[in-house]
Amino acid sequence: MGPGDTPRPSIHSSPMGGEPATVLVVDDDPSLRLLCRVNLELEGYKVVEAESVQSARAALDAESIDAILLDVHLGNDDGLVLLPAIGQDGPAVALLTGSPGVHLPEGATVIGKPFSIDELSDTVRELVGRERSSLG
User: Fold this and answer.
1) How far is CA 92 from each of CA 7, 88, 134, rounded to the nearest angstrom?
2) Handedness of CA 22, 114, 73, 52 (dihedral sign)
3) What are the residue ranges in the chain where pLDDT is below 50?
4) What is the DSSP letter of 79?
5) pTM, two decimal places
6) What are the distances in angstroms from CA 78 to CA 12, 70, 87, 110?
């Protein structure tokens, strides 16, 4: 940490309190999932990984998810097909994409690939905060 840097809290609570906030990382690239998991766990988040639309649906059914990082292109699948299942009242979502010019829903939170660890952390913190404010 350099001069003038603000220390980050090490534990990010779930909107329901107590437990760490849970982030679902949906990406078909195992190295990107690992990068996200390691860095988010270091910040105190619980991380659930999914490599496909099917495994993401299973995770959404099995876990209490506070925020989602969703790859737009999941191999041959379109990650955007998950948005209706998540719904407007579901966890806050950031879309991951390395494809400039891809058509995304208006107002979507987007993280362009490649991204920095700070961008990842800041976006997840914002998503979890958004989830908290929607519950209050």
Assistant:
1) 24, 8, 10
2) negative
3) 1-2, 5-11, 16, 136
4) G
5) 0.85
6) 30, 10, 16, 15
* Tokens encoding 122: 């800041």
The C-alpha angle with vertex 43 and arms to 72 and 83, in degrees rounded to 5, equals 25
What is the tens place of the pLDDT at every residue in 47-75?
999 999 999 999 999 999 999 999 999 98
Where would I find the H helices in 12-116?
30-42, 53-62, 83-86
Distance CA 103, CA 92 (A): 19
Q: Rg (Cα) of the chain, in Å, rounded?
A: 14
Domain 22-135, CATH class in plain words: alpha beta
Token couple for 81: 């097909």
Q: Report the relative pairing of strands 73-74 and 46-50 from DSSP bridges.
A: unpaired
What residue segments make up the domains of the chain, in order of their start? 22-135
